[in-house]
Amino acid sequence: MSATIVPLPSAASSVEEGKFADLALRGGRVHCLDLDATVFEAIAVRAGRIVATGSDADIAAFLGPATEVVELAGRAVLPGINDAHLHAVWMGARWPKTLFEEGGGEGAHGKLLSNAEERKQAILKAWSVMASLGITSYTEPGIGPGEDDGETGCFGTPVLETYLELAGTAAQTARVTLLRLFGILDGPSDFASMRRSIDVEVRAADPNWLAIPGVKIFADGIPPMRNAWLRDPYPGGGHGGLMTGSGDDAERLADFTAMVELAHARRLQVAVHATGDRTIEEFIAIVERLGGADGLRHYVIHGDLVTPEQLARMKQAGMGLALQPLIADLTRDWMAQAVGPATAARAWPLHLMLAKGMRVVLSSDAPVTSPDWRRSIASAASQLEAQGVAVGGEILTELLRMYTAIPADQDGALDWKGTIEVGKVADLCVLDRDPYMTGARNFSDIEVDLTIVDGRTVFDRLA
């Protein structure tokens, strides 16, 4: 769908006497990233919420003597970026190193965080980095008792306590969706451990700032390590297997099934690290037997070797996927070596996901790779072109929605964030130029000028 200017004649009529905007942005290209790809010139914000959108004239009635006015001068505004798979505490503890780039090749080994102050500083560092990138929401994918004895100190229950202490304070500059973890990060988990801890009450926080809607399960490994569970054998033998439970494939599958069923019964979202086609198949089958996701938005993380037939069934069951385009770029050669060129050529079928109308989010998995969403979108565009898709304005809108509106939907929060619409939170990302003029392949050239969270400027590149 092409972007068009849509006037809002009634915008000014909604202003109340004496209720001027705290903040206004005008004279730009405001990409709402709603289903109609609406574009406005200006926005007015009051008390952290968008109160008007439209032309500069439409919002004029909202401007008072104390209104802060940002002159966009043709710059673009997007909804705040939502990275749906980002290990913020781990990233903050390691920054600026990543696993694949920037000299950070070591894995998740060695103690990084030993006390509450170090945990707090890691989170604050991560929030600072995210603010500089226009990221206003993210999913912290796996914090909990399974990592209480973990060697890095980045994923255990004490991290959750630090998040709870910071939630809703002035220090918080990004909204957090946190998934609980009952096993080891990138390692084994079992039904008994989940059952023992899943009903332990977690102290409540304002879900607009810290939401804990579900659980993460590491079901298998990754194809380059030959521990993703495949239908067909790897070259040289072996199928990989599940990381859940112990024993043979049937026993491990029984544990995995019980874990998904328990979380579903508790009305929790289930996010499963699943890269092999056999693992993905079994997760889909479990959800199908449960009658579908039932509004819980269960999803596959990574989904490297998902098949076209599985995609159709996932959509029917109300399931989604969280992809990482930069990881696909960085590991494509390893994938081919592990599973063979023919199987590798079918990996990460983003073009099929788009064609089938799947609920797909793009994400970084930082600090595995860079948290820079601009690079992820450029990678996704390159992959789509290699898959025969022409990346024009319509596809660019879809890619941007995969970093804004669709992750908000995955969070169960699309009614209050994820697009630029009256009544939603004023989480905004101001770019130095219009991305529709730049093109997705050149996204890395775009600068983030301003990041606004809840109507508050948390990053200003030009300050």
UniProtKB/TrEMBL annotation:
InterPro entries on file: Amidohydro_3, Metal-dep_hydrolase_composite, Metal_Hydrolase
An example Gene Ontology molecular-function term: hydrolase activity, acting on carbon-nitrogen (but not peptide) bonds
Alphabetized SUPFAM superfamilies for the sequence: Composite domain of metallo-dependent hydrolases (SSF51338), Metallo-dependent hydrolases (SSF51556)
UniProt KW keywords: Hydrolase
Signal peptide per UniProt: none
Top-level division of the source organism's lineage: Bacteria
Keyword Ion transport: no
Protein name per its UniProtKB record: Amidohydrolase family protein
